[in-house]
Amino acid sequence: MDGQKSQAKLTRTSSSLLRFSPSVRSSIQSLSSVSDIEADDLEEQKPHGRPVRPGQSRLAPVLAVILLSTYTTFSYEGDLVDGRYDGHGIESWARGSKYRGQYMQGLRHGYGVYKLYTGDSYAGEWCNGQGHGVGVQTCGDGSCFIGEFKRGVKHGLGCLGYYFF
């Protein structure tokens, strides 16, 4: 049993308690403690319902949905084909992020500019919803990367610089 853990529970049967007990009184006490243990074991084996934490209510998930929908609202102006973004369009979010560019089958595809509310931006080629090809990524801290991207990540040749305004 190298490296294996096992848990075993030692219990005594009624007959073994009667046989090895010095007196009847201790046997009765031992039997009652065994029955208490068995009752606890049965209680542990019952399936428990979902515990309710103090302060938790059924209203919390509803509020979360309302807050998420408030902060993630967006608008789209542009072409639609079969209910999907297709062609040129502008997507804007409540916090100030904006994408202006080309779409294909509901994904950013072609050339586009994505400006985040944090001050970061990416202008360049897109493929299947990710920056892919040649592009310019600028960050709010003043850094700028001009070069190649693959699936949204800097990849290949490029130039990294810092600009202080």
From TrEMBL:
It holds the Pfam family MORN. Residues 23-55 are annotated as: Disordered. GO terms for molecular function: methyltransferase activity. Keywords: Methyltransferase, Repeat, Transferase. GO terms for cellular component: membrane. Residues 23-35 have a biased composition (Low complexity). GO terms for biological process: methylation. This is Histone H3 K4-specific methyltransferase SET7/9 family protein.
